[in-house]
Amino acid sequence: MERKTHVKANRKEVMLAKLRKKSCSCTPQKLKNFLMDFFPVLRWLPKYRCKEYIWGDVMSGLVIGIILVPQAIAYSLLAGLKPIYSLYTSFFANIIYFLMGTSRHVSVGIFSLISLMVGQVVDRELLLAGFDLNDDAPPASGDGSLQNDNLSNTTAFNLTIVGINAECGKECYAIGIATALTFMAGVYQVLMGIFRLGFVSIYLSESVLDGFATGASLTILTAQVKYLIGIKIPRSQGHGMLVITWINIFRNISQANLCDVITSAICIVVLVTAKELGDRYKHKLKFPLPTELVVIVVATLVSHYGKLNEVYASSVSGAIPTGFIPPKVPEFNLMLRVALDALPLAIVSFVFTVSLSEMFAKKYAYTIRANQEMFAVGFCNIIPSFFHSFATSAALAKTLVKTSTGCQTQISGVISAMVVLLVLLFLAPLFYSLQKCVLACIIIVSLRGALRKFRDVPARYYVNKVDTLVWVVTMSASALISTEIGLLVGIVFSMLCIIVRTQRPRTALLGQIQDTSFYEDDLEYENLSTVPKVKIFRFEAPLYYANRNYFLKSLYRLTNLDPNLEAARRKKYEKKEKQHLKKGNHRTANGLGIGETTLQLVPKQIDFQALVVDCSSISFLDTTGVNTLKEILKDYKNLNISVLLACCNPSVIDSLKRGGYFGKDFGCMQEMLFYSIHNAVLFAKDQK
């Protein structure tokens, strides 16, 4: 077979062609394509199937919007900020992601882990500025007006060194730190998008994503249990949160609120029953059942008129301030202080968003653009930072609720934003009596899909043991250490598994299938015939520096011959023979005659005269791999054993040519390289 001649392109011409293609000229078509790529909503919104999608989008948007309100109270405490700032964050993030995001289902907004990372930086900077972290602001008053907001920590500090006005209270300085941190995180994410670093999402394998989702679901479930049974325990932070939280739960189980326990039991039974019926009869239902919305409305009415908070001390959402604060540019000097802290925040936020986007895109059979997701999340941080908001990310719990309530597109995000806007302006008092245990029930029931992954472990193990191990490690690390570290552990561990599998791949000696020209593993198949005087060796991995030694050891073990040891042994005997001949002794060191010496040089007769290496599974060779093949070629040649290569792909052949395996003029190439194992075997049989 003749190889095609590939003309090498002139790099200078290629670069000039690319520059001409990406010229700075602004034509209407280029502007249109740019806008449609930068704002994906322009592509899918005109094709929106209103009759088919609107009901699910409205229902999911309403439910997520209602869930966002009480979550803002808890997550803003993690961030060390007031709940109103979480509502701002949720409102702006949903609008911006609707315009720029490529995922149809993820819910972008406040997220516990991101809130915690923001809170750690805020607390550190407050301490450095001299504020007392224990001096908390008083609870929100009943009128919920920002105009009546009085800062409890109004001690004046000289903060001109960080660019803040001479007098700034604790809350003013805290939100200043949070917005500066958020702005820098968004800038990092946009820069990563410009430099096309979204490719990192390809390292999130299915096993890593499933393990991450399951581990994060366990963490979320654990965090909701205290609301489920109505006990007051400190929110655990840092590594090992799941274990610490469960220890605190069992220590305080005697303090469980009976009203919350009964409410939770009723809500879970209703939600699970409705979900199971919905799954069973979904082909008969024209739209998903709005069970979560009905449960929230009924539970709020029961809690309000039954006075569950006053009579039974059941935990409720409470009052939330209303109104908007004028926008403000984040302080540049504060950005410099938090620049390093913003980098891990940007990476974690992006990885969470892309991993969830990939997971739900796979589940619902569509694709996302990782680099555009980077831009979307980046601007979800940059723009809201001017409106007193902090960092955002996709949230697993709300995304699961979103999909379970029939979400079809990011129209649901706009609906959620409108719900948050109504709460910000008018409806905050209506959610005062909504029990937190009801919201916990909705979140926990929405996790059932991810938790069902445990039932798939036996089937997963049967299909692939290594992928199951990756899933278990990722899930365990996400649950027992922390979610962001769990995702990192999963990615690193999956890569290590690939490296280990290429370092110690399958190796085999092949036998011939009778009356055919095909060859297979002698240990795996019955009735294979050995080829006289020929050994056929298969190596099922690329040959590179990390598995060179394993390649040689496997080859020597399977062929039962180490050419280096054999050559050394022969040299040793030849040296002894010369010494005996010089002394005039015609008998060798073994007491044999000279004629018998040759037989004694090879105590175990070499039973083959040709070695065929099946290269069909060797996808590439590095310099070490080429040198290894040259080494065995030389070593076996010293023993009068020819080495023949079969089934090499063009990349491997080119590497061998460049490495000088076939000699300078490639004259012996036709006697060393064959396009099939059978051709190599026939050539070996014809050799004398």
Automatic annotation (TrEMBL):
The keyword Transport applies. Keywords: Cell membrane, Glycoprotein, Membrane, Phosphoprotein, Transmembrane, Transmembrane helix, Transport. The keyword Mitochondrion does not apply. GO terms for cellular component: apical plasma membrane. It is found in: Apical cell membrane. It is a multi-pass membrane protein. Residues 524-684 form the STAS domain. Its main location: membrane. InterPro entries: S04_transporter_CS (IPR018045), SLC26A/SulP_dom (IPR011547), SLC26A/SulP_fam (IPR001902), STAS_dom (IPR002645), STAS_dom_sf (IPR036513). Belongs to the SLC26A/SulP transporter (TC 2.A.53) family. This is Sulfate transporter. The lineage of its organism: Eukaryota, Metazoa, Chordata, Craniata, Vertebrata. The gene is Slc26a1.
